[in-house]
Amino acid sequence: MEYVVSDILLSDEVIHRRVKELAKQISKDYAGKELVTIGILKGAVIFLSDLIRYIDQDVDVVMDFMAVSSYGDSTKTSGIVKITKDIDINIRGKNVLIVEDIVDSGLTLSYLIRMMGEREPESIRVCVLLDKEERRKVPVNVDYKGFDIPDKFVVGYGLDYAGKWRNLPSIHMVDIYMNSPEEGKSMRGGDI
Ligand code: 5GP
Ligand code: MG
Ligand code: MG
After folding, report:
1. N or C end: fewer C-beta atoms under 10 angstroms in the chain?
2. How far is the CA of 3 from the centre of ligand 3 (A)?
3. CATH of domain 11-149
4. Each residue's pLDDT tens digit, 81-123
């Protein structure tokens, strides 16, 4: 099978407009406070770095990162998440914002929220750029959401397929060809 970047689902212009709006809301909610952002590597890197530059300067933003991998076949997540890189900061008593690229089944985020909660932060909220709500298996309370998207596999603006295409400024769907693009027969954005 071959995977080819296809149509734009969300252009960089549309993304930036929405990221600014999210930052404005976050700026209002945390005005005069410290905010520890926890970006989930690697997908959230581009989103988080744009987001914090749009947050007002009277919010004291601290950045940290965490890397996770789910055990076993990632398309059929077990719900058990392995932390491959933990944050460096002690978040006890802090206002925490988990920043993630996309919420799909919800298993990753629900695990992370529970785990971070055990560290007794002052507050914990979640910010995601994309939400495939129809795929949800466990409920996740998303406080700041960029866009609802259909159940299609997407890449770009930090999101990858096999490590590639994170650098694309816009978010694209992916066409999957059973044989080759020349021979045709594409299946758009299924579950990779
Ligand atoms: P879940 O919510 O199922 O635990 O997993 C979310 C993770 O699955 C995301 O952080 C992301 O890594 C991956 N994922 C889900 N849908 C997509 C998609 O359409 N494109 C890409 N590139 N990754 C996705
Ligand atoms: Mg992710
Ligand atoms: Mg990925």
Report:
1. N
2. 15
3. 3.40.50.2020
4. 899 999 999 999 999 999 999 999 999 999 999 999 999 999 9
